[in-house]
Amino acid sequence: MRTVDLVIIGGGSAGLSAAVGARKQGVEDILVLERSPYLGGILRQCIHNGFGVHKYKEDLTGVEFAKRIADEARALNITCMCETFALSISPEKVVTAMNPSSGLFTIQARAIILAMGCRERSRGALMIPGSRCAGVITAGTAQRYLNLEGYLPGKRIVILGSGDIGLIMARQFTVEGAKVERVVEIMPYSSGLARNISQCIEDFDIPISYSSTVTQIKGHGRVSSVVVSKVDEKRRPIPGTEFEIPCDTLLISAGLIPENELSKSAGIELSPVTKGAVVDDYLMTSLPGVFSCGNVLHVHDLVDHVSAEGTQAGANAARYLRGEVETSETVPVESGFGVNGAVPQKVRRAGTGKVDFMFRPRDKFPACRICVDVDGVCAATYHRPVLTPGEMCSFSVDRSVLAKAKEKIAVRVEV
Amino acid sequence: MWDAIVIGAGISGCSTARELSRYQLKTLVLEKGHDVSAGTTRGNSATVHAGYDPDPGSYKAIYNVRGSRMYPDLCAELQVPYVKNGMIVFAVNEAQMEEVRRLKEKGDSNHVETKVCTREDLLEIEPDMGEGVIGGLWIPDSGMVCPYNLAIALAENAARNGVEFRLSTEAQSIEKIQGGWLVRTSGGDFETRYIFNCAGTYADKFNNMVSKDVFHIIPREGQHLIVDRDLAKYTKTTICQTPEPLPTGGHTKGMGLMPSVDGTIILGCNADDVDDPDFSDNTREGLDKIVNYFEKNWKHFPISRHVPQFPRDAVITAYGGSRAHPDRDDFILGEPEDAPCFINLAGIESPGVTAAPAIAEDMVKILVEREGTPLKADYKPGREIKAPFRTMTMEERQKAIEEDPDYAKIVCRCEQVTEAEIRDAIRRPVGARSVSAVKMRTRAGMGRCQGGFCSPRVLQILCEELGKEPLEITQSGGHSNILVDHACQPKEGNEQ
Amino acid sequence: MEKQLVCINCPMGCRLIVSMEGDKVCSVAGNVCKRGEEYARQEAVEPLRVLTSLMRIEGREKPFSVKTSAPIPKRLMFDCVNEIFAHRAVAPIHVGDVILANVCGTGCDVISTQEVL
Q1: What is the DSSP letter of B414?
Q2: Between helices B11-20 and B147-160, what is the axis angle to 10°?
Q3: Which of the ends of chain B has fewer CB neighbours closer than 10 A, N or C?
Q4: Which residue has the higher pLDDT, A56 or C32?
Q5: What pLDDT does B306 receive?
Q6: According to the model, what pLDDT value does residue B9 have?
């Protein structure tokens, strides 16, 4: 069996950034496994701009960002195997994969970075009642049909959920001459970025209904209309508030779920909140030497953040391979008031520098503070002019603050 | 003139077609759907019932028991997964235990092995049996199958033995002619000596065209949820709660948890009369009924030892199907007195999937015994098909990839379906012509992402194999096109 | 005259009130930082957007992606879209290639964001 120092599963923005990060930290023997025939992952179908503002200080389209990061990896002679599907990872870090030219093969990895990305929540998972006709499609799938295949999957569209992909697609459908009838969001606020609400929805006078959901899909063969209802504070439809919208497509943009089937095969501990691996401040999972980054760890809003996390995972994998990452004692991190799914979920006592935290606010909090409690005592605070569920919150804490923790660290919002 | 026309290609029609294909007969199957198994057969509980609960002496009892005993060989012959996993019908109170003992008596009359169990007995069979269960009935011969998979296999085998299938062809009327029948369809007229009425929820329509002995089918919808395969490892046995009587009289089988042969879990079902014979919608009421039942009663089920709460997040989809409930209490079989050579397989509601192979045998016997039809000498009972990639051993996978590198290309990542299997599903007899037909044959798109990632690629492969344009490909025939236009069309009046 | 805008520069979403006299901005209120004022001054007078789109390629089945080299006036967006859709690019195409110069007289070019060999 072939041995490789670092195997990276996934050749999207997280995986390629991790590869570049590891190479820059001196890892020679890197292998990236990518299941599709191309590098770049989901960015290949993102023709809109708004990428790279942090990483490259430029406003790039997703396609350009993907090419740039793939070019960086190529320039560093990183080996990438495309059309290669990883079937499983064993707890001993043996990766089983296959592709048409090499068939089925196994690799003994010394370290692994998980960068498989995420999938979209489907109609089935949302249990939307009604006809099982054609024309119900997730926003990302629609984006692929349009941008990679050149076909419109609908012309009269209702969008369920105000996730960013749905908003971006609302604009692009409008540019393509299709009519977006309405965006329907179950929460009282948007789950997308403010910029996207403004430039994808308001620019085109697309109506948006908050605290509402689709309660029925109608149509024979193809969707002919959907029924929209208001929901109460427990998100249950309110009878009598229904109205029907004629349309040929229901586009679903109602959340992303990390794709951790491979992580499960390795027995890696997953968080029920983020649906990603439980990691420490090195982004290392419960399996020593296996790291996780990008949307497979937790769903991000910005590719720039995915890329930064990938770079960090790559650098940490390099440290692990040099024997600089001990399996040392950790302290658990809890998500307190207003905080959903803080990552990392545990922090090492030993070490230097800063620890980066990320979480998704549970609600909109104007003018608030993020508090870091160490063993129940507030040890650091960070002011924020506003927090919204649509945008991931990130902050860095000096390890010296955290090193004193004996039992637990908690992150919470104070209004 | 055809010797036999089968109307409807569900489990009854496909079983009949395959049975007819053993004989020297010219047989045609007419199906209004875009695929075989497009109706009731695709939307039920996938259970091969042992036959403990139909009324003794009824057609349901006779054919259920006989059908159930045919399943192991039939499925082996056609390479269709079948598991005899046993069923526990549990009771949580003394009234339900009373019902359990009544079921036991029925089982005895039907000569089906059952055992009335105490809680301790149940724990020996299912060590994780949940809280509150005081006892129940153990039915060791209960099994699971994938009904549409079986129907497709039966159709493929029938086609392999010379039966012709016309899909998307709706039988519209039947007239008596000299020496047989004239069937007018959306795809032309056909003359035949015999008709097998396997039209499911439409069977009453055809019977009532030819016979004064009229009956009516009341479509009765059942809905189910599918839970992701991760959780199936905790549960092997089918577990149902003792049924409660229906307000309309009679009873249905209780809510149950069925571990499917494909490694997922099926939960269901409700039973509600509907107007539309094609009704397969999921309704808010139906879904709520299932979710509410399992949220409330999850603790009784063995899986709750491992997953304490009903795993709402692990539900990957829901489906529905209308069962052909007749206004008589039993299956309606054979020739009406005033319509010889018109053979009903009607009112085939539960346990129809189990009973179908046995019913088909007897119904075909009416023709071949009367006509003295000889068997085909070159009849081939099996199928030429590889096991799914996901169930292959590593050695089998390696060999498959060596023979066809398309086996190394995963198209559906959730269910690990390869490009080779998708191409094969299109090329096979009665092959897939739509995205949904590919899904039914291969499971591509049936996993947790529900086709989000793979459907564009499946669509491409359908185009390549069938020589079609993407705009022509449908989800499930008719007007269910997936794509509606080319991008980048300059438009008149394209303005804000 | 007053115009109300929501700032898009950060999650704050400041509600901006722009006082106008004819086509000229007199003052901006409601912003907490300078970026808000800059945004409001431009947005109130002539909103600008980068346009991204697909374009067809002569003799190819699949389109490729393009963008405007700089933000263009929002009011010209659909005119530009029509010009883009009416055009057929010729492969090979490299990232940054100018496909349509000075689209709709905006002074901006339509450039490729994708490599097509």
Answers
A1: T
A2: 30
A3: C
A4: A56
A5: 94
A6: 98
State which fold the C52-112 domain adopts.
CPE0013-like fold (3.10.530)
**Cβ–Cβ gap A104/B408 under 8 Å:** yes
Q: Tell me the pLDDT tens digit for each residue of A225-264.
A: 999 999 999 999 999 999 999 999 999 999 999 999 999 9
Q: Which chain B residues contact residue C56 at CB under 8 A? A: 488
Q: What is the mean pLDDT of chain B?
A: 94
Which of B487, B489, B495 lies nearest to residue C78, judging by beta carbons?
Answer: B495
Q: Which among B226, B283, B485 has CB closest to A129? A: B283
Report d(CA A75, CA A79) in Å as an integer: 11
Give the CATH fold of the B2-41+147-217+328-371 domain.
Answer: FAD/NAD(P)-binding domain (3.50.50)
Cβ pair B72, B82 in contact under 8 A: yes
Amino acid present at A69: I
Predicted structure pTM score: 0.95
Residue of C113, C115, C116, C117 best to disrupt the A interface, most CBs of A under 10 A: C113
Indicate yes or no: CB of A132 within 8 angstroms of CB of B280: yes
Q: For the domain with range B389-472, which CATH number is right: 1.20.140, 1.10.287, 1.20.1070, 1.10.10? A: 1.10.10
**Whether CATH 3.40.50.620 fits A1-121+255-327:** no
Give the largest Cα separation in chain C, rounded. 53
